[in-house]
Amino acid sequence: MADPAPKPAATFDCRNAFVQTLEELAAADPRIVAVVNDSVGSSKLGGFQKAFPDRLINVGIAEQTMVGVGAGLANGGRIPFVSGASCFLTGRALEQIKADVAYSNYNVKLVGQSSGIAYGELGPTHHSIEDLAWLRVLNNLTLIVPSDPWETSEAVRWAAAHEGPVFIRVSRMPVPELSRPNREFRVGKAETLRTGGHVAIIACGTTVHLALAAAEALAGEGIEARVLNMATINPLDEEAVLAAAKTGAIVTVEEASVRGGLGGAVAELTSRNQPVPIEMVGFPGFVPTGSVEWLFDHFGLSASGIAAAARRALSRKA
Questions:
Q1: Domain of 172?
Q2: How many folded domains does the chain comprise?
Q3: Bridge partners (DSSP) listed for residue 18
Q4: Where does the chain show beta strands of DSSP type E?
Q5: What's the CATH code of the domain at 120?
Q6: Is 216 helix (H, G, I), strand (E, B) or coil?
Q7: What is the C-alpha radius of gyration for the chain, rounded to an integer number of angstroms?
Q8: Which of 57, 62, 153, 311 is the most buried (most CB within 10 A)?
Q9: 113 plus 209 within the same structural domain
């Protein structure tokens, strides 16, 4: 009798890790408050609102006001977590993020919920694939893209303790919890999840587990792929990227536009210091309406698509 097929790995909504951690921190620190744009439900902050009714501010569908209120609260000594759908938080309120938060260097924690293409069928108006590109240019805004529930929780803890502006990109798309023998969350430092000297795959967020699956498939072909979890896009771990470039080929993977995000950051750095072939896996621009599963598969954000990109990069090695 054949062995039964292995059960698929359990998956988790990282928004749950975000809110559970925030409630825990708020219980210990009265300075922590939440600010939302009529997004209590989608941010999963209903429990926070019940536990701390006077510490959740709902400004309605007014993202610019939301960020401005967060800046004012920070100026008054509070630690505001400003939470809303990433497409609206970063698109509609970009000027306030730039001027009120980053330029002013206020202690605001921006949380971009349901990022990437998590809204799927709602289409390009709700996709948030540009956020990494336009936030990365704000040099003092720490930009974190967690890969699983544990890393999401650690990012929230770090942000609460850190003095300065932070953006955390949280997806609603369920992901597996990654296996980490020696878990340590370090902002600005890449996490090596797999070693290899033929090609390096640098991924962030919801694509990290796919990068690991691609590396496993490549190993069956005799290709040893290094896998880096680049959870911090700004500041970028330049040392890790340049070490990855020594493999001679790089693949970047992100649930975002290939224009200006993680791939852009890696390409900028390597082009100045150690040019190597780079294949960028992500979205080329506006993407059509469709399910998350179809969009990921269609644009190569799958284990097979990432493996194919690695082969292309390898074919271009000097």
A1: 11-176
A2: 2
A3: none
A4: 11-12, 32-36, 56-58, 79-85, 109-113, 142-144, 166-169, 175-176, 191-194, 199-203, 225-229, 232-234, 250-257, 278-283
A5: 3.40.50.970
A6: helix
A7: 19
A8: 153
A9: no
Distance set, CA 244 to CA 227, 250, 261 (Å): 9, 7, 18
Residue 262 and residue 153 share a domain: no
pLDDT in single tens digits along all 318 residues of the chain = 444 544 567 999 999 999 999 999 999 999 999 999 999 998 999 999 999 999 999 999 999 999 999 999 999 999 999 999 999 999 999 999 999 999 999 999 999 999 999 998 999 999 999 999 999 999 999 999 999 999 999 999 999 999 999 999 999 999 999 988 788 999 999 999 999 999 999 999 999 999 999 999 999 999 999 999 999 999 999 999 999 999 999 999 999 999 999 999 999 999 999 999 999 999 999 999 899 999 999 999 999 999 999 999 999 987
Whether 3 is in a domain gets the answer no
The answer to whether residue 292 is domain-embedded is yes
Same domain, 226 and 307: yes
- Residue of 23, 24, 63, 163 marked active site: 63
Residue 35 and residue 154 in one domain: yes
Q: Is 293 a catalytic residue?
A: no
